[in-house]
Automatic annotation (TrEMBL):
Homology family: Belongs to the IMPACT family.
Annotated source species: Algibacter aquimarinus
Protein name stated in the entry: YigZ family protein
Residues covered by the Impact N-terminal domain: 22-127
UniProt-listed InterPro entries: Impact, Impact_N, Impact_N_sf, Ribosomal_Su5_D2-typ_SF
Domain of life of the native organism: Bacteria
Length: 206
């Protein structure tokens, strides 16, 4: 089995989509997020924007190797809002995403089945309005070497078409490179076999 080194996410926040059901209005939003601070900020911003709404239900998923997710019904009946929203995240196979559906109550109760349909549809419409793209999972390596080995290092970087993230070129040089996860082992071995060049794995970059 080939270890997957790509994932799908959204490029930017979507414009709100509106779904109506029996006078209730459901506004669906998507946000690209990488951590809980991003999530908190986006939800608080929406609550200010839609301060007269009744519910701000959401679901999010972050991570590529280790997945973290949460659903929130925000006062709606259990599992009638957050889970249907999260189901669309799974259906579209996206991560590093927050979907919020803001509800203005229209005076007519929809029942649990009606709510599930409304929140699912709102999340689906919001995802369809978003720019979904595929990204690679990358690993960062730190190369440390003396200046005399610069040509060797740069030749390999050019040959293997590696991305330089940052560099400090003095008597003792340091270059941070970004490598696709599936190529990380072979790139590590190439530099590791060179006696005067030290290579250290830094982190998984998404």
């Amino acid at each position: 089995m080939i270890d997957k080194d790509t994932y799908k996410t959204i490029k930017s926040s979507s414009k709100p989509v509106l779904y109506k059901e029996k006078n209730s209005k459901f506004y669906g939003y998507t946000f690209p997020v990488k951590n809980e601070d991003d999530i908190k900020y986006s939800i608080e911003k929406l609550k200010k924007e839609h301060h007269a709404a009744r519910h701000w239900c959401y679901a999010y998923q972050i991570g590529t190797e280790t997945i973290s997710y949460r659903t929130n019904d925000d006062g709606e009946p259990n599992n009638s809002a957050g889970l249907p929203i999260y189901g669309q995240i799974q259906s579209f196979n996206v991560t590093n995403i927050l979907i919020v559906v803001v509800r203005y109550f229209g005076g007519v109760k929809l029942g649990v089945g009606g709510l599930i349909k409304a929140y699912k549809t709102s999340a689906q419409l919001a995802l369809e309005a978003s720019n979904i793209l595929e990204k690679t999972i990358n690993v960062h390596f730190l190369l440390t070497f003396e200046y005399k080995n610069m040509n060797t290092v740069m030749r390999i970087i050019k040959e293997k078409n590696l991305n330089i993230i940052k560099q400090k070129l003095e008597i003792d040089c340091q270059i941070t490179i970004s490598v696709r996860k599936k190529e990380a082992s072979s790139i590590f071995e190439i530099f590791n076999h060179l006696f005067e060049i030290d290579i250290k794995k830094l982190k998984l970059e998404i």
